[in-house]
């Protein structure tokens, strides 16, 4: 933020922006679209729980493997980390100017919650904004914690889902329910897959809304399990912001090198667990394979997230790489707009009120579509940011936060 001549608090623009932060955010949006594309084009929340791979074509199976290893759970974690980083910057700049920090932040979070709710109802069930808004309120209790305390809390919160999953496995083993998926549950999954295929590809807009809400209800339990993990990433973002990670990269070189090395070592180890568990390549019980997948997802995704962040940050210190990657900065500056527009474009392609291709496109073509859509977003973001101070949704978000219409044109 900055202060104008009348001491009115206004949003950050221009020179005060952290370019590296914007580029990393833009990179995260590419990975998020790569993963979400599987959810846009198929009944993924249900097929994910099958004991066999839903995709049968070789190219689709390999594409699914690629997304699981390199993208799944690695990019929303970056986005979550950056949310915490941005939270701290927002709060500190408001505090430095003596403004009502909590009031501003609460309005900002409420606006995000509204965006998330509308996203779920009108566009797509896999929204993350509402979860960020709900969990984001808890950040107010950590803003004054020391960096060390933030690290301790982060570790505790990352371990919580692992303990929950381990406990569920032990409970299932005690009652003898780990060998195969429950047949009644499998039948339910089959019914939901067929319903999703029919409604999303041929249904009316109202019918699609009902199906979207049913899908959202189905994943709520997963969101609850995931909540401590998201909060942990928020806190790691606050920790990094207090260390001025992106503002003072030279001073934080040792920290980034540790993040790079340990992120790679831990990431590879647990992503192996994620991969083998998801497809049950070890031939273990159904419940055990699912727990392996979830634990690998939580820990492996987090570790590789920091490997990716550190790698990208080091590359951006080299002029040639900075020139290549800099267009991602405009995408990152319009992160909310681009995140929501991804849903607009993808659902128009796959849902019945658009082209109705739901269930007819596999992961291989999904990857092609991902890069095609993202390329359009890169060019649009560059065009828009040359002419305007904020993305369209960023402008609306800021206007709702400050309760005053913000100037849009440069």
Residue share in β-strands: under 5%
- Average pLDDT: 90
Number of strands: 2
Radius of gyration: 21 Å
Largest sheet: 2 strands, antiparallel
Q: What pattern of helices and strands is seen along the backbone? A: EEHHHHHHHHHHHHHHHH
Structural class: mainly alpha
Annotation field: number of helices = 16
Distance between the termini: 16 Å
What is the strand and helix layout of this fold?
Layout: E1 2-3, E2 9-10, H1 19-41, H2 44-47, H3 58-70, H4 75-96, H5 101-122, H6 129-136, H7 147-174, H8 183-202, H9 205-242, H10 253-278, H11 286-315, H12 319-325, H13 327-333, H14 335-350, H15 363-387, H16 392-402
Short description:
This protein has 410 residues and is an all-alpha fold.
């Amino acid at each position: 933020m900055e202060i104008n001549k009348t001491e009115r608090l206004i949003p950050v623009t221009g020179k005060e922006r952290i370019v590296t932060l914007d580029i990393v955010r833009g990179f995260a949006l590419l990975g998020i679209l790569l993963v979400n594309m599987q959810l846009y084009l198929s009944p993924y929340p249900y097929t994910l729980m099958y004991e066999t791979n839903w995709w049968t074509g070789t190219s689709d199976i390999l594409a699914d493997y690629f997304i699981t290893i390199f993208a799944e759970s690695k990019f929303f974690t970056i986005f979550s980390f950056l949310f915490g980083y941005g939270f701290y910057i927002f709060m500190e700049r408001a505090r430095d100017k003596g403004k009502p920090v909590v009031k501003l932040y609460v309005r900002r979070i409420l606006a995000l919650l509204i965006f998330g709710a509308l996203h779920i109802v009108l566009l797509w069930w896999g929204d993350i904004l509402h979860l960020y808004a709900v969990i984001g309120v808890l950040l107010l209790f950590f803003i004054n914690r020391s960096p060390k305390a933030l690290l301790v809390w982060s570790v505790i919160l990352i371990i919580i889902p692992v303990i929950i999953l381990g406990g569920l496995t032990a409970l299932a083993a005690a009652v003898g329910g780990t060998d195969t998926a429950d047949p009644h549950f499998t039948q339910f999954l089959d019914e939901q897959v067929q319903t999703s295929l029919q409604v999303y590809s041929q249904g009316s807009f109202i019918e699609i809304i009902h199906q979207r809400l049913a899908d959202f209800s189905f994943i709520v339990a997963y969101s609850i399990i995931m909540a401590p993990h998201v909060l942990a990433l928020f806190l790691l973002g606050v920790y990094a912001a207090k260390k001025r990670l992106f503002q003072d990269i030279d001073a934080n070189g040792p920290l980034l090198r540790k993040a790079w090395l340990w992120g790679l070592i831990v990431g590879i180890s647990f992503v192996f667990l994620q991969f083998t568990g998801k497809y049950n390549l070890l031939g273990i019980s159904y419940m055990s394979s699912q727990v392996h997948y979830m634990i690998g997802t939580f820990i492996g995704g987090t570790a590789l997230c920091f490997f990716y962040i550190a790698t990208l940050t080091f590359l951006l210190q080299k002029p040639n790489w900075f020139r290549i990657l800099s267009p991602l900065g405009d995408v990152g500056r319009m992160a909310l707009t681009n995140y929501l527009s991804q849903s607009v474009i993808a659902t128009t392609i796959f849902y019945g009120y658009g082209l109705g291709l739901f269930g007819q496109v596999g992961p291989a073509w999904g990857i092609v579509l991902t890069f095609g859509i993202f390329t359009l977003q890169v060019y649009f973001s560059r065009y828009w940011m040359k002419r305007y101070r904020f993305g369209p949704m960023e402008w609306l978000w800021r206007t709702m936060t400050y309760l005053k219409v913000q100037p849009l044109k440069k």
